[in-house]
Design a protein that fits this description.
Length: about 160
């Protein structure tokens, strides 16, 4: 089963955390996962993916304009409806609005007809509410959280598909 982790990253933090999620995903048996910049998507791979996760840096307490633009103009042509979906963000500060950035993406995913999931509090510790957030100055501290998130998304995708 294939999973796509899409991201926009200006300075590398969101890319690093997308790769960390992939690491967690491929630890689940029979799961293949790939991280791709929204500027360079393998469309065939995306089409075959049962689950799609999208990541953004937090810009002005919102998703980055580049992600919003991609969602508005490109995502609608990719038939993402019916796929399991999740979102994550990186941020400069814990109070910087990353949850809002994630919610922005989840809202758009709902519009696309995707099946929103994060694991929430149903998977025990660590609870991941809307989606995982990493602070760019200390990414290493969030490695375990992002790997666990990847495992949970992949396990749910396997269960559903
Ligand atoms: C234009 C701009 C706006 C930003 N606004 C916020 C913000 O509102 N809240 C926050 O926590 N961090 C903010 N940041 C910091 C980034 O979210 C953070 O450094 C992020 O991890 C960068 O991701 P990247 O390395 O993938 O580009 C901003 C950074 C930039 C460049």
């Amino acid at each position: 089963m294939k999973i796509s982790v899409l991201y926009f990253s200006e300075e590398g933090s969101t890319k690093t955390m997308a790769e960390t999620i992939v690491k967690g995903m491929v630890s689940v048996e029979e799961v293949e996962a790939k991280s791709m910049s929204i500027d360079d998507i393998d469309r065939a791979y995306l089409k075959e993916s049962s689950c799609v996760v999208i990541g953004t840096p937090t810009h002005y307490a919102s998703m980055a304009a580049e992600v919003k633009s991609w969602l508005d103009t490109k995502s609608v042509k990719l038939n993402l409806g019916g796929k399991l979906a999740g979102a994550f963000a990186t941020a400069g500060y814990i109070h910087g609005g990353a949850d809002i950035a994630i919610q922005n993406i989840l809202t758009h995913m709902t519009f696309l007809g995707m099946l929103i999931y994060s694991g929430g509090s149903a998977c025990g510790k660590p609870p991941i509410h809307l989606g995982p957030v990493a602070i760019s100055s200390k990414l290493d501290e969030f490695t375990d959280l992002f790997e666990v998130y990847g495992q949970r998304m992949a396990s749910k995708a396997k269960e559903l598909f």
